DNA sequence: CTTGAACCTCTAGTCACTAGAGATTGTAGA
DNA sequence: TCTACAATCTCTAGTGACTAGAGGTTCAAG
């Protein structure tokens, strides 16, 4: 049995965040000492690691809640879990695509006034003002 | 002179968002009719387009505030603006890098239980629970 | 002059935390 | 056993960039 601070250190999840997860129902309510402090065991550690990993992968709290529910009801859980993971993957791919477009345009914009003589107007500001200069929509 | 609804239509920025930008000081306070409704001219339209474009590119409200200040004080504005744009670009590139790692891992996870026979435990959940399976840290 | 769409302000909610105040508890050393 | 102080507790409020809704007012077409 260990304290919230210990759990925090082991999982690298900040203390207020742990309490927040508990409040949100992601984490079961922890046992308490007679003095009302939380105590955790290995189960709590594993569950929090799971949550942390899923958050790192960009799953929303809502999605994680679903995944946890699936863990507790193993019937059909595999298909549902795969579905959630695939949606997440599609989401990530869409974000990458969009960011690449942004990268392209920002590269163009940033190159405006490099080492060479600075013209009267700032190219960066002009580029931002004039959407027509963009190669594509966004 | 046109109304906030008209401005919204032309810029594709929602009405409450326009008011929010005004409140944040991004947009100058609009002129008002005798009945207290906002009226905009071409200047307002251009400034909002600028803001919208910058937001689309992921610039924060804070960064846009700086860019707008630069527009009003053209001395040295070019270097400063280029700096802001470059930071933004670095940020975007970092995000892309991170998302690509996530994509890789999610692909691996999603492939767990495809069409073939569903095993006893869900691979997706197991993969999420066990960080050790990851190729890299995140 | 009437009607109803569009506008106004204000408050509160979203997501996933984070920060701080003020009080209580746990624990190591004397 | 006492003391000191680090760690914990609950609670409220703040973050960024909006979004939603209530309840009231104004504009413009017919």
Layout of SSEs?
The structure is a homodimer of 138-residue chains.
Chain A: H1 4-11, H2 15-23, E1 31-32, E2 38-39, H3 42-56, H4 61-72, H5 77-110, H6 123-129
Antiparallel strand pairs in A: 1-2
Helix pairs in contact in A: 4-5
The structure holds a DNA duplex (30 and 30 nucleotides).
Protein name (chains A, B): DNA-binding transcriptional regulator, MerR family
GO molecular function, one term (chains A, B): DNA-binding transcription factor activity
Keywords (chains A, B): DNA-binding
Give structural notes.
The structure is a homodimer of 138-residue chains. Chain A contains six helices and two strands; from the N terminus they run H-H-E-E-H-H-H-H. The first copy, chain A, has 138 residues and is mainly α. The first copy, chain A, has a domain at 4-72: Multidrug-efflux Transporter Regulator, Chain: A, Domain 2, CATH 1.10.1660.10. The radius of gyration of chain A is 23 Å and the shape is elongated. Chain A has helices at residues 4-11, 15-23, 42-56, 61-72, 77-110, 123-129, and strands spanning 31-32, 38-39. The longest helix of chain A has 34 residues, at 77-110. The first copy, chain A, has a two-stranded antiparallel sheet with strand order 1-2. Mean pLDDT of chain A is 82; it is low at 115-119. In chain A, helix 4 packs antiparallel against helix 5. The first copy, chain A, starts with a helix and ends in a 9-residue tail after the last helix. Chains A and B meet through helix 3, helix 4, helix 5 and helix 6 of A and helix 3, helix 4, helix 5 and helix 6 of B. Chain A binds a DNA duplex (30 and 30 nucleotides) through residues 3-5, 14-17, 19-20, 24, 33-38, 55, 60-62.
């Amino acid at each position: 049995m260990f304290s919230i601070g210990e759990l925090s250190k082991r999982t690298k999840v900040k203390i207020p965040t742990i309490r927040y997860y508990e409040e949100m129902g992601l984490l079961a309510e922890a046992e308490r000492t007679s003095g009302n402090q939380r105590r955790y065991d290995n189960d709590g550690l594993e569950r929090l690691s799971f949550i942390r990993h899923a958050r790192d992968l960009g799953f929303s709290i809502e999605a994680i809640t679903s995944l946890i529910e699936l863990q507790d009801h193993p019937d059909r859980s595999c298909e549902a879990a795969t579905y959630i993971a695939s949606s997440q993957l599609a989401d990530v791919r869409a974000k990458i695509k969009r960011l690449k477009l942004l990268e392209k345009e920002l590269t163009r914009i940033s190159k405006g006034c490099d080492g060479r003589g600075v013209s009267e107007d700032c190219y960066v500001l002009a580029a931002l003002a004039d959407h027509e200069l963009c190669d594509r929509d966004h």
